[in-house]
Amino acid sequence: MGETRRHSPLARDAMAYVLAGGRGSRLMELTAKRAKPAVYFGGKTRIIDFALANAINSGIRRLGVATQYKAHSLIRHLQRGWNFLRPERNESFDVLPASQRVSEDQWYAGTADAVYQNLDIIESYGPEFMIILAGDHIYKMDYELMLQQHVDSGADVTVGCLEVPRKEATGFGVMHVDDKDQIISFIEKPKDPPGMPDKPDMALASMGIYVFKTSFLCEQLRRDAAEKGSERDFGKNLIPYIVKHGKAVAHRFTRSCVRSENESQSYWRDVGTVDAYWEANIDLTDVVPALDLYDRNWPIWTYSELVPPAKFVHDEDGRRGKAVSSLVSGGCIISGAGVKNSLLFTGVRVNSYSRLEQAVVLPHVNIARSARLKRVVIDRGVEIPEGLVVGDDPVLDAKRFRRTENGICLITQPMLDKLV
């Protein structure tokens, strides 16, 4: 197949299609008003920005995003931050809500159905390749390298895979592969995951990233749509069918992950629980974090509000505006307060005598005087009352707020309103 390689990048002839309908219910109240892909991450960005930025940085200029649950804030973010693609340059950006385009049923039945219902739009652009992406993971990846493997191997589908310890793979869809990484079987959440031929203690877990030739994908989606009893899902229906009747090949994330000189290992996170979300954000405050957001060669594009620089004021004993080992976004005012090992999103105000430690504070939160908050996630726009203490008394914290197994407290405005 080597002679089929072209001089121009394959990404030019590809469309990236992001599945961004996830409820994200394990994030509890963080997804009460927004879909998981719209959840804030890293100080400025939203989770979905990583998949979209990977596509743009890989050279893909046709993007589609399928939305479903609580999609308003996600759609608003996409319109504000991703409206720079121009049709006259053969670029496109489509937001595709579930909209009864194919049947009377309003919702997408499954991940495959979310593509099937928009086949006419996809076919109107005529991309040669389709990359199906999950919109709710944090990682940096060059999809061009995955496209090249897909073409060179002659696969019907190429599945992006993570290498995970075998005992930890029980929550994933796992690929059983031969010594050429061709997938022999696809097992959803196995009790005893198969090891890799070259690394028996590791298993190949699906990342929810698939590459197809568009014509083949359309064929398979139409076949699946006509099949009674199908759940219309890539992981449950389409991929197992292709494994059995065609050629499915695994693509190892280590082959295409993007790492700056400061990143020692490939980075991928599913921030699907409050604990995982808090940890991934707080990890960014490390001196050399595992995820490098400062890499100018692979920027994470997003909607950036026009705000003034962060400001630190007052310099008296006990009332000094300072932040140590923290990320402080634009528009923040640290007014006579101390911030340590914390991540503050845009427009946060921390007032005098307050102390934050290991806090993830979403945009436009106002923290009144003399509050002491430790190991917390604070939702957008929350007004923290004067003197509130969180992180000292686990029993009291659990009564008032959402407290996780690891002792992280999620604080929302409705929770605070009940305290009054």
Automatic annotation (TrEMBL):
<keyword id="KW-0808">Transferase</keyword>
<protein>
    <submittedName>
        <fullName>Glucose-1-phosphate adenylyltransferase</fullName>
        <ecNumber>2.7.7.27</ecNumber>
    </submittedName>
</protein>
<keyword id="KW-0548">Nucleotidyltransferase</keyword>
